Amino acid sequence: MRPAPYTFEEPTNLTQAFANLKDGMPIAGGQNLMPALRMRQIDTPCLVSLEKIDAFSNDILVTVDAIQIGALTTIGELLNCAVIEKEVPWLHTAASKLGDTQVKNLATVVGNVCWSDPRANMSIALLASRAEIKVVNEKRLERSVPIRDFFTGFQENCLNDELVGSILIPRNSGDAGVYDEFSRQPNDLALVNVCVVSNQEGVAAAIGGTCATPIVVTLEYTDNVRNNDSILNRIISLLENYADQFTTDQFGSSGYKLELARVLLKRALAIVGEQL
After folding, report:
1. Residue 158: which residues within 8 A CB-CB, separation 6 or more?
2. Which CATH number does the domain 176-275 belong to among 3.40.50.300, 3.30.390.50, 3.90.1590.10, 3.30.1330.60?
3. pTM given for the model
4. How many Cα atoms sit within 13 Å of 64 on the Cβ side?
5. Less CB within 10 Å around the terminal CB: N or C of the chain?
6. How far apart are CA 82 and CA 93, in angstroms?
């Protein structure tokens, strides 16, 4: 199928961008958006490119406390960042499994998150990393949204006439993490994916593909929760609290997805336990 007719705008600043967006949709890499337009799953009279906006960049900036990923940073650029590979290897792994080379060179990290698919690789890895989303409105007012509060439904998020300017990942030298997924073939969208990030204080586990939004559960370590078996049991118990929200679709039943999540979490936690 072909998409319905639309115009294409290339604003150079936020004022122009938000004026165009009153009747349009933003596009950066467009790796999710364009197929949806071609299939007429969504419709818009105007696409608004973010590539020339002076407030946005593809830089990955490293400060003492955080790593900042720009709005236009592609998956390929993330993979080529030595700091990401060294300090956030689970995010690097998640990026490496996202599409073929062409997709990696066009798709943006922010776009993958904003599309708000519950199985999006970047979303799952960033949820476990306790990332912050920096958003801006047409008055150039900025606010910070914890990524755990960003997703509101299937392909829905909390943006309200706003654009994402960057994503911040806290730098914690003691963190260890693993991203894992189950998919039908290499570089395909995962059926279920997980990311586990742990430090000396506790563990965060993000799970995608089971519900309309990604799930993240956190567990603080205590004297009674230290070994892998007890951690796994507690994480699975927290996950099962969402059982009534699990979805059944063409990819599998809710019970099948829960079992996949259990297997992936057990495998990830075993690896993380060896890294600490």
Report:
1. 145, 149, 150, 151, 152
2. 3.30.390.50
3. 0.94
4. 0
5. N
6. 13
